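# nightly structure sweep
# worker-07 picked up a monomer target from the shared queue
# config: single-sequence mode, recycle default, output format = structure tokens
# input follows
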Amino acid sequence: MSDNLTDSSGFGLPIAGPPVTGCNCKRTKPWRTTSSPPKASNLGTWPQGEARDYKFDKPGAYTQLCRVHPEMETFVVVLDTPYFAVTDRAGTYEIADVPPGKYTLVAWSEKLKAVKQEVTVESGKPLTVNLAMAR
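# output follows
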């Protein structure tokens, strides 16, 4: 997958609206389906090296599965904001250049329950937020 999406670990973060390009870079023909809300769809199969666009209209967490290869799974979290981060191996993160204001900070994991916390960003003041996720 490409454009405004990161897919090095099977995980993507596009912004809702613009299309995302998915590429079959494997030697097999996967049958990709998005089986989770907010929008289920069947992306079909296509040959190695071929790319197709898909538009995620609504923010949310999508699980993409392969009907041919059950071990193939991709998570795509579609956002409605350009302000996000992916944690490092230690679980730390930084979201830079967030304008002052009130926000809902959301932490998501494919295996743990999502956590939400209201935060207020003040101009020129760093903000530290520690979130604990559980099963």
